[in-house]
Amino acid sequence: MADESVAGGITVPDTKLAREATQLVRDETSDLIYHHSRRVYLFGALQGRRRDIGFDPELLYIGAMFHDLGLGARFHGSGRRFEVDGADAARRFLRDHDVPEDGIRRVWTAIALHTTPGIPEFMEPEVALVTAGVEYDVLGIGYHDIAPADRAAVVALHPRPDFKRQILDAFTEGIRPKPETTFGNVKADVLEHYVPGFERGDFVRTILESPWPE
Questions:
Q1: Cβ(15)–Cβ(58) under 8 Å?
Q2: Lowest CB count within 10 Å: 9, 155, 194, 212, which one?
Q3: Mean pLDDT to the nearest integer, 70-75
Q4: Which of 68, 53, 39 is nearest to 154 (CA)?
Q5: Domains, the chain, ranges and CATH?
Q6: Where does the HD domain start and stop, copy by copy (predicted)?
Q7: Which long-range contacts (CB under 8 A, 24 or more apart) does 136-143 make?
Q8: Which residues lie across from 11 on neighbouring strands?
Q9: Mean pLDDT, to the nearest integer, of 197-213?
Q10: Would you say residue 98 has pLDDT above 80?
């Protein structure tokens, strides 16, 4: 990994666990998701350094690499949120590698909550920084917090051509088969934009139409 191990002064973990996680993601996802996931780690780690937050690089890396795995075709029939599918896949992977349960819990939580703004930032560093990396790469939140040279180094290693359109396409295809999982979360916006006939769940109507008699 000599040519990809450092970007902006951040080292990608070069451990057996990290290498096997990388291979799994390479085997199961597209180039789009692979490069995005690597950027999420690098941007998350850069944000951690900027905020002076200590974190476990290996756990952060696994969380970043698995965070969008649940968009894949093998999970389309799960009936669960894609975040949970990715989190469960990471948990199985980590248990197979005898990672302690506290580390597994952190990774699971980081993946499961990475599309739930306003909560991860108050949790363990790995949880906070997976979300920070996702928000940076997808939404541009904190864009100017990272030095232009560091940002350019990350993108040079993991380019993002036409990324905005392509990641929205990936979200749409990953979630279209289970639209009910978008209730109360940001992915309802995606299907509303890109899937004709989609109707988002309505929280107020759900309460008013509940089986309670009053």
A1: yes
A2: 212
A3: 97
A4: 39
A5: 4-159 (1.10.3210.10)
A6: 34-121
A7: 136/40, 136/43, 136/44, 136/47, 137/36, 137/39, 137/40, 137/43, 138/36, 138/167, 142/47
A8: 6
A9: 96
A10: yes
